[in-house]
Amino acid sequence: MIQKILIANRGEIALRIIRACKDLGIKTMAVYSEADVESLHVQLADEAICIGPASGAQSYLKADRIISAAEVANVDAIHPGYGFLSENARFAEQCERCNIRFIGPSSEAIRKMGDKSVARETVRKAGVPITPGSDGPVETEAEALKVAKKIGYPVIIKAVAGGGGRGMRVAYNEVSFVKELAQAKNEAESVFGNGTVYVEKFIQNPRHIEFQILADSHGKIVHLGERDCSVQRRNQKLVEESPSPFMTPDLRKRMGKAAIRAARAAKYENAGTIEFLVDKNGDFYFMEMNTRIQVEHPVTEEVTGVDLIRQQILIAAGEKIPFDQRDITFDKHVIECRINAENPARNFAPSPGDIELYYAPGGIGIRVDSHIYGGYRVPSHYDSMIGKLIASGPDRETAIARMYRALDEYIIRGIYTTIPFSKAIMSDPGFRQGLATTAFVEEFIARNPPSSYAEKD
After folding, report:
1. CA atoms of 148 and 308, how far apart (whole Å)
2. Predicted local distance difference test score (pLDDT) of residue 1
3. Which residue of the set 111, 233, 292, 402 is catalytic?
């Protein structure tokens, strides 16, 4: 069994991993930047070591410093969380070479599924539906234009190393395509250090539905159902729920089988997510695979009762998944709202600063995953998400009512947050009817001016 784990992350996910380790009796080692010295994950870990300045590029993205800390602390494994180095194949490979278990898939699987064009080809061979597009990366503007003309506009240009909505551009005609292609390449080069892109058909106003999978080293792969992530802004998810209000038992069965085929084709091990776009007719297409735990994993934990972080650790320790597909049930509805330190009235600009007062909601069916507290300073150096609010109920109507009540109770003074914005979404008739597609937020903002939900919280 693993005795000590280094957590190569920060914020709420670092805290979540520490709690899972404590449940398993595993010691924890936190790493932190100078900006995170007062963070809860530093205070609650058994040991902690500073690995650099506030900038993520000089701390949490410094693989050599993290490996050095792991060797000094004599840890058995590293949990990367999400973001930072979690999908970095080279980092996973460094762990493997240093005889440190990487709590995630192999470096080979990360490399294969991290390149979006390779991932498309891998799952296509396994019989998983993919959207029409280029056969791998497009090398020249002429080649890209030829593909776009063949599959028909609109098309979407995607970075092969992309993620989080970066390096993606939609073109509706040939004139805009040339400009969007250049912008996608430039952004991809800037963000990922790789400007290579591919082109595929753009599915207009789809639902974004992802399937959570677990795979062990003994050949067992199970899926834990879906999460509907359609409520998103600029490809960044804001609200996630399970089950999807669009889902039918037959569609879940077909998509679940496709997700398992994709994971098996990648020779995948540990927790991962297969993401699909689903059109209005119920036809679904593989989008990408996230080779890590997801921000929205609590939705699946609450709807199935499976502790995903615990399972990640046990799988990394070589244990078998202790349940079969038939054991997974979905007997309640769960919704998650991401709480971001942002000001909706200023186009969702980040709102770092000191939290003057903090009160988290509670009651039946409410879970809060957050690392903040009264007196905590939200740094300006990282992602603006400061917490996740999860509401559960026996049905969707109850889950929405509990979420609204919890958002109404949630107090964070001193900074702007997206709490009022989330409350407005919970009240929206279209959302309540389960009609949200990936175009929902833009349409919602067009109908509801930011001044109506952008008060200082």
Report:
1. 40
2. 83
3. 292
- 378-422 pLDDT, tens digit each: 999 999 999 999 999 999 999 999 999 999 999 999 999 999 999
Distances (CA, A) of 69 to 10, 15, 66: 15, 19, 5
User: What amino acid is encoded at 105 in this protein?
Assistant: P
Asked whether 92 and 107 are in contact (CB, 8 A), the reply is yes
Nearest to 159 by CA among 180, 132, 130: 180
What pLDDT is stored for residue 229 in this prediction? 98
The low-confidence residues of the chain, meaning pLDDT below 50, are 457
Task: Look at residue 455 in the predicted model and tell me its pLDDT.
Answer: 60
Contacts of 397 (CB under 8 A, 6+ apart): none
Coil, helix or strand for 411?
Answer: strand
Residue with tokens 């490996």: 67
CA pair distance 158, 145, nearest whole angstrom: 14
Q: Measuring CA to CA, how many Å separate 134 from each of 150, 175, 189, 341?
A: 10, 19, 20, 38
One-letter amino acid identity for 273? T
Q: What is the pLDDT of residues 94-134, one digit of tens each?
A: 999 999 999 999 999 999 999 888 999 999 999 999 999 99
Query: 322: Cβ–Cβ under 8 A, 6 or more apart, which residues?
Result: none
Q: From CA 76, how far away is CA 85, in angstroms rounded?
A: 18
DSSP code for 46: S
CA proximity to 57, closest of 190, 183, 245 = 190
The answer to whether 380 and 436 are in contact (CB under 8 A) is: no
Paired residues of 337 in beta bridges: 239, 389
Helices (H), 386-418: 396-409
Would the CA dihedral through 94, 187, 288, 380 be positive or negative? positive
Catalytic residue flag (residue 292): yes
Domains, the chain, in order of start with CATH, read: 4-86 (3.40.50.20), 132-201 (3.30.1490.20), 207-452 (3.30.470.20)
C-alpha to C-alpha distance for 403 and 409, rounded to whole angstroms: 10
How far is residue 414 from each of residues 160, 342, 380, 456, measured CA to CA in Å?
A: 40, 12, 14, 8
Measured in whole angstroms, how far is the alpha carbon of residue 270 from the centre of its chain? 16
Q: What angle do CA 77, 78, 80 make, to 5 degrees?
A: 155
Among 285, 293, 266, 84, smallest CA distance to 201 is for 285
Dihedral sign, Cα of residue 406, residue 303, residue 254, residue 266: positive
Structure-token pair, residue 154: 């609109």
